Amino acid sequence: MTKINIPIINIKYNLQNQKYWFPALMWLLSRLIIIIVMFAIMPIAAKTSNVIIHKYGWWDVLFAWDSAWYYKIATTGYDYGLDFTKTQYSVAFFPLYPLLIWILTKIGISVVVAGLLINNLAFLAASIILYSWIEERYSQNAARWATATMAWCPYSIYGTVMYTEGLFFLLSISALRAFDRKQYAWAGFWGALSSATRITGITLLPAFFLTAWKQKRPITAYIASFAVAIGVLIYSFYCLLKFGDALAFLNAQKGWRTSAGFAWQGWWYMLMQIAIGGNNVTIGYIKDPLYLLQFVIVVTSGLLLLRFRQKLSVDKVRYGFFILWFALWLMAGESLIKIVLIFGGLYLLWYYCQKIPLVAAIYGFFSYGIALNTGLTASVERYVYAIAPLFIASGFLFAKYPRWGYAVMAFGGFILVLFCIRFAQDFWLA
Question: Which of 274, 230, 264, 268 is nearest to 374 (CA)?
Fold first, then answer.
């Protein structure tokens, strides 16, 4: 009897391919959730409710709030004035994203489709570059968790709708990686594009400069540092020529906020919403004592779990904390997610600051400095989400505690679905 040798297909991927397909898979699966919710579930919901969708076109559910500003800039250009009390001016939004949209419209692509293509493809590319950077510097496991966290964070919705998050991620991660690899020409190039996309891109300048000084890098590293400012300087020069005000993009922020600095009253208010309940805080006295009782039960249960964790199995402790977290979220809502993401992320960045690349750590802290000193609590979570070093830190955390990582991914995916529904209904998110 003739022996037939059947070749066995090796389904184990090699490391070279994984740095492309794993982040692409995370991107695809998380984006599919968004597309299914917005384009399949929302039309069904609209038939049985007062939800209004497709007011402008098929892309309507991906177009809201800041999207309208980028649409306006790409089609009619910038405007500016001095009546900040009644009018908001488009010059507050940085130019690279609407400029790229305008360029694509010249080859026949519609404005919104161009905006969506740029943001989504840039977000995909950013995920691949982040994965590659972490894998080559640390480990495959950390790279996996970092890109998974980035894709499944609820605020990753802004990497799919008509916003700048995807583009800014791509440029800032590319700049940080290039500087870390001592590719200073590329670092300066990507850094300049970052500062032309969002104001927080300018924090790459002190990150590059201080890293160059601390690590005694060559003069080209310092040149790359100052090259970061090219993007914002060109925009400033444009504002001077067009509006006679080189700082128009900063002055126009008065249309959204009357002051800068740490909004301690807003954050305190949010903490009180978590601790004593939103209704009680709004009214100014304890009208709903049941919330206080529930909060005490959750906190006490958490302390008991910590006290007796040695006598309980690891799984019981883990599931117990997850149930308590879910219960507290049901009580406190979005305020809890916002506080944990922003200040928990800051703690995580501090905790791993000695392990992540120095340039990334410095960039992260300076970016936090801008995000937390806007004078408002609104949108801060979206600004913080765009700080790439947070996902390097989360990669380390969940690589060490993978079961917690799976729980966080599951909860993040659930909240992402809720955020998709809200955004599709034109409700404010961040």
Answer: 264
